[in-house]
Every structure is written in C-alpha cells, then in structure tokens.
Amino acid sequence: MNFGGHLLTGWALAQCRDFNRTEQRVITLMAIAPDIDGLSILLPGTFEEWHRTFGHNIFFGFTVPWLSLLLAAPGRRLLLLGFSYLAMLSHFLLDLFVTGWWALYPLWPLSDWMILMSLYIPEEIMKYHIQITLFVLLVALTVFLYQRTGRSPFRLISDRFDNFMITFITYPFLHRCAHCSSRAFYCDKENGGPLCGRCARGGVGLRH
Questions:
Q1: Where are the domains of the chain?
Q2: Phi, psi of 169 (to 5 degrees)
Q3: Fewest CB atoms less than 10 Å from the CB: which of 153, 171, 174, 200?
Q4: Phi and psi at residue 177, in whole multiples of 5°?
C-alpha cells in the first residue's frame, strides 16, 4: 500500500474512539512508522536493498507501539497501546495483500526468510484491482468521516491548516465563476467574487 493509504488507515482507526488530537497523531504515526526504511530512497542505490527490512519486521512491530505510552494519559494507556498495535498491524497486512510483489522479511535481521504474496496472488491483480479499489474505499471512508465528525486528516497538523485545506479542496465544487460560470478556484470578495483560473489569469476582478 502507498504511504497515503497507510496514513488514511491509521487516521480512520483513530476515529473509532474519543481520542484527542495527540492520541490520533500517535495512532496515525504507528500506521506509517514501518515505512521509515523507505527513507533509504534518499540514498542512491540503497532503496532496493533496505526497503521493507528494518521497519517491516516483528521486532519493530512489537517494540515501537510501546512508545505510545510516553504520550498516553493515565487511564488511557492500554487503550492507546491497543490501537497503536492495530495501526501497526494494519500496515503489515496492507503491505502483504495490497503490494505483495515487494517481499516482507518478518524476521530481519536474524533471517532472510521472506513472504512474497505475489507467488499466490498475481501482481496485476494486487496492483490494478486490490490496491486501487482499496484506496478509493479509504478516500470514501475519509469523506464519510469528515461529513460525520467535521474532522479530516489535515487536523492532525492544526485546525487552521484543516480549514484551509478543506476550503481549498471543496471551493471549486461549491462555487462558480462570477463572470463565466465555470468552476471557481479563486475568491476576490472585493472585486468580483469567485473566479475561475481563466478569468483570474486574464485579470478579471482579481486583486492579490
């Protein structure tokens, strides 16, 4: 599964209970934490060797969720720990069944034994059917949760950033250009209201 899919999965898990923002950040972080070995892409020639190694094994998966206890409030430690493990498990399961053409080394570094799911499920099925379908479902779930709770994954950063991004994403669907009725991407309240890209580039009413 791609990084965005893991993030949306972790965020969705964090909406299952009345977690505060810090707890939601922890759970979401656990869902993407194994991809730390993917940072090897920054070092030329090392990604193929290190991807899905030190972040994708049972030792990492068992120990890292315990770090969540450092940020857990008294009386909520077991709850947060449990969801941290669920988020971590979701990462491994998604990688196994959605992007299984990449091998997993669950006993790394003690063993080179690997799990390669593409030996059982054709790569084309995982890549063009399972992965795309599941990602679309995750996006749909994110939209549903936003409509239900008024929160989006952007809120993990801040309320202000959340409001900005939601407005930016939804504005073209909610407004039409005041001059040509195309979908609007800009707002010039003082000199003409909503504007499409063409009218904005043409200088119709837009002031920066």
A1: 3-156
A2: -75, -40
A3: 174
A4: -60, 135
| Residue 176, burial from CB neighbour count under 10 angstroms (0-12, 13-18, 19+) | middle
Residue type for position 187:
C
Instruction: Encode pLDDT of 92-137 as tens digits.
Output: 999 999 998 999 999 999 999 999 999 999 999 999 999 999 999 9
User: What pLDDT does residue 186 have?
Assistant: 79
- Pairing assessment for the beta strands 193-195 and 186-188 based on DSSP bridges: antiparallel
Give 92's strand partners: none
Kindly report the average pLDDT of the chain as a whole number.
91
Two tokens at 130?
Answer: 């399972």
What is the reported pTM?
Answer: 0.87
How buried is 126 (Cβ within 10 angstroms: 0-12 exposed, 13-18 middle, 19+ buried)? buried
